[in-house]
């Protein structure tokens, strides 16, 4: 203890400090100067006194401060010497070109132009005309593409990675710019940049969202999504501008405010609301410019201005198209439709009085010529600020209030334009939707008629996607019409209760109770009986007729496609050398025999003809099997036999038998047992569509049970005997008609050779269930 107190006196005497002892050798302490220690990376200084006291100091050399300005800064640099402090530096490497999906045709044209120029350089030939033609074609394609952009395409352009950012525009339009930092609460959000700048000698307060130009900058700028600190920084600068009389220009380019837990805890909503309230009370002009995407309250927090201008390809929305599609359609793939319905483009927002003007962009978007775009922004700022300069503070407040008060105004009773659907009543919206649907139906019908006129003799093939889309739209509309009709007839509650029971029975994965099936049938019969009383009966009827027409068109299109594929494969099969040689050999023998009919041929030659025919049929079976079909039998075409038969009653008997068979099948299908099996089959099929690896065996078993039930019912009804009797009559009629003529034999051979077999035969597939 004695030594410790002596040492404290020794160190504290003569008002000396530890650093003094290190600087000199006074009081018996030997040491080194701190300056000398600073020259070494790691130095240990040890002092020793007569009382064995040791003092050790370890000093680690720190990194020398790296000043952002050069050794000899240019005092006349644009923005002033302090602009060297800005973190926004020119990019070392040029940004990589990014091609959007809809721009791919333009890229192909550019590639062709480059290839032709390269060829001209390598060969020395003159390709001037070809290059001029391609360049003209490219310019025209670019013009056509960018003058007819869809809303979702404009969204993609607004989000383009190479699109000029807020600071890009600021450095292009200002003479000097000084960035100001911090919210005076200990934070500085890099996603919002603020500062004072001059344009043509006039000072402005600039506030804007700042996105990054590459991945590193985007991470640093948080992809342009501000936290509450950013909005509070913007608010501080607004108060500063209002105090000093600086006009405020805000640049909006954000997907929205940053919505993480920490931001919410620190008052994201309060910060945005405070900005909204404050901006309506500032007595200086405020001009907002949307340069990219303006998302929700994050954009509005610096967007309550006297005027809001938008770049031509900018968008402004309350929710992104992807988010809207996920909410309304349960899938983000419906974003294009959502973008169209949201009315988020500059032209649409100007028509709705949300935006006040459009600043043009070059063809190809703002990133195609950033400097030109910035100059257009500068012109717009000067024009509007000259207008605001004539207003007093109170007039500016009234002007700002009037701008937002007039948004959403409409007049009741006036006819609704087809394009304008804002603030419409529900029935007007439905009527407009119905008109649009009818227009689409008429367009599709015109396509079908044109296709038939172009090829009247061939089957008309239409795009399955177009037909499926139209059928789904019609089904959705018919469901809505049925709901309205049920409501008008007072069946809405019963329908909802029955639907709930049906869904519950399906979820439990067992057969429905016969009582529930009977209840559904009664409700269905009552609904169908009273449907004509509903006020929307004509609309329901018209849409049902449309649905039937398009369902038939779809079935015909699919059948035509399958038939075309079958014929193509049959042709390939019979064109094989070994098959063709056999057919040609048999035809040559028949021709050399001199026989005028099949009966006159020798038994050996008859056997050879039949054998060749069976081989061709076997090839046909192989082709069908490769397509997932099964050839069960090749039988004479009964319609042709009847047409050639002198007995006209056979045709009537055939039609009557077909009617009886169809009626019997419908009767069997309506029985509760078969209905419950069919409903269960639907449930299993729906499950299998979600989980393809499961349920296939159960589906096959149910299909076999249903087919067997129908087959048993048909066999017990006596229709099978009638069919056999009719076949005998047809055989007798065929013999009387003398169809085994030389001409028919040749036609059969030709048909076999063509591989179609459609002239005299048809494929019988009894899998009607």
Automatic annotation (TrEMBL):
Keywords: ATP-binding, Coiled coil, Fatty acid biosynthesis, Fatty acid metabolism, Lipid biosynthesis, Lipid metabolism, Nucleotide-binding, Transferase. One of its GO terms (biological process) is malonyl-CoA biosynthetic process. Its EC number is 2.1.3.15. It comes from the Eukaryota. Pfam families: ACCA (PF03255). Residues 738-755 have a biased composition (Acidic residues). One of its GO terms (molecular function) is ATP binding. Component of the acetyl coenzyme A carboxylase (ACC) complex. First, biotin carboxylase catalyzes the carboxylation of biotin on its carrier protein (BCCP) and then the CO(2) group is transferred by the carboxyltransferase to acetyl-CoA to form malonyl-CoA. This is acetyl-CoA carboxytransferase. It comes from Brassica campestris (Field mustard).
């Amino acid at each position: 203890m004695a030594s410790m107190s002596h040492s404290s006196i020794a160190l504290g005497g003569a008002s000396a400090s530890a650093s003094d002892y290190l600087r000199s050798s006074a009081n018996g302490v030997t040491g080194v100067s701190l300056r000398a220690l600073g020259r070494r990376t790691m130095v240990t200084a040890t002092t020793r006194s007569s009382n064995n006291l040791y003092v050790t100091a370890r000093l680690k050399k720190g990194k020398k401060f790296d000043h952002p300005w050069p050794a000899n800064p240019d005092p006349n640099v644009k923005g002033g010497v302090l602009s060297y402090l800005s973190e926004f530096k020119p990019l070392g490497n040029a940004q990589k070109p990014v091609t959007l999906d809809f721009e791919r045709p333009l890229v192909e044209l550019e590639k062709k132009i480059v290839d032709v120029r390269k060829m001209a350089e390598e060969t020395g030939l003159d390709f001037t005309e070809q290059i001029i033609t391609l360049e003209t074609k490219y310019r025209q394609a670019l013009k056509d593409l960018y003058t007819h952009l869809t809303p979702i395409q404009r969204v993609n352009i607004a989000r383009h990675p190479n699109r000029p950012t807020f600071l890009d525009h600021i450095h292009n339009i200002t003479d000097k710019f000084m960035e100001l930092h911090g919210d005076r609460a200990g934070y500085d959000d890099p996603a919002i940049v603020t500062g004072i700048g001059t344009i043509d000698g006039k000072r402005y307060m600039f506030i804007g969202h700042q996105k990054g130009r590459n991945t590193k900058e985007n991470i640093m700028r948080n992809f342009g999504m501000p936290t509450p600190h950013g909005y509070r920084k913007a608010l501080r600068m607004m108060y500063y501008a209002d105090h000093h009389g600086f006009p405020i220009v805000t640049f909006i380019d954000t997907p929205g405010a940053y919505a993480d837990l920490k931001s919410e805890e620190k008052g994201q909503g309060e910060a945005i609301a405070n900005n909204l309230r404050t901006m309506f009370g500032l007595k200086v002009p405020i001009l907002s410019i949307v340069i990219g995407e303006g998302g929700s309250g994050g954009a509005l927090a610096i967007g309550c201005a006297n005027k809001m201008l938008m770049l031509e390809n900018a968008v402004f929305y309350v929710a992104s198209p992807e988010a809207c599609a996920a909410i309304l359609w349960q899938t983000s793939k419906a974003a294009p439709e959502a973008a169209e319905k949201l009315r988020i483009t500059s032209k649409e927002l100007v028509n709705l009085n949300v935006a006040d003007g459009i600043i043009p962009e070059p063809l190809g978007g703002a990133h195609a010529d950033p400097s030109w775009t910035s100059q257009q922004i500068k012109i717009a700022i000067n024009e509007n600020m000259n207008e605001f300069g004539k207003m007093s503070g109170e007039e500016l407040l009234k002007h700002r209030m009037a701008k937002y008060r007039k948004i959403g105004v409409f007049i009741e009773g006036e006819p609704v334009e087809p394009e304008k659907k804002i603030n419409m009543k529900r029935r007007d919206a439905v009527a407009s939707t119905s008109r649009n649907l009818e227009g689409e139906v008429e367009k599709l019908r015109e396509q079908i008629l044109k296709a038939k006129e172009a090829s009247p003799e061939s089957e008309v093939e239409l795009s399955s996607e177009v037909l499926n889309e139209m059928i789904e739209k019609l089904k959705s509309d018919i469901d809505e019409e049925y709901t309205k009709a049920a409501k008008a007839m007072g069946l809405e509650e019963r329908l909802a209760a029955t639907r709930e029971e049906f869904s519950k029975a399906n979820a439990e994965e067992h057969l429905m109770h016969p009582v529930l099936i009977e209840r559904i049938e009664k409700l269905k019969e009552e609904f169908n009986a009273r449907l004509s009383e509903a006020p929307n009966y004509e609309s329901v009827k018209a849409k049902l007729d449309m649905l039937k027409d398009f369902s038939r068109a779809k079935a015909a299109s699919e059948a035509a496609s399958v038939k075309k594929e079958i014929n193509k494969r049959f042709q390939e099969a019979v064109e094989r050398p070994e098959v063709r040689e056999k057919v040609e050999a048999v035809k040559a023998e028949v021709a050399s025999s001199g026989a005028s009919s099949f009966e006159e041929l020798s038994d050996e030659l008859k056997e050879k003809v039949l054998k060749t025919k069976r081989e061709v049929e076997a090839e046909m079976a192989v082709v069908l099997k490769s397509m997932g079909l099964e050839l069960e039998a090749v039988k004479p075409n009964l319609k042709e036999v009847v047409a050639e038969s002198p007995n006209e009653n056979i045709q009537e008997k055939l039609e009557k038998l077909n009617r009886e068979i169809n009626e019997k099948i419908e009767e069997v299908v309506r029985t509760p047992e078969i209905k419950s099996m069919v409903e269960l089959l639907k449930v299993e099929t729906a499950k299998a569509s979600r989980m393809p690896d499961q349920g296939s065996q159960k589906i096959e078993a149910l299909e076999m049970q249903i087919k067997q039930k129908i087959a048993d019912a048909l066999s017990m009804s006596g229709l099978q005997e009638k069919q056999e009797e009719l076949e005998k009559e047809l055989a007798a009629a065929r013999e009387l008609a003398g169809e085994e003529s030389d001409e028919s034999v040749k036609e059969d051979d030709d048909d076999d050779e063509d591989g179609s077999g459609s002239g005299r035969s048809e494929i019988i597939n009894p899998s009607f269930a």
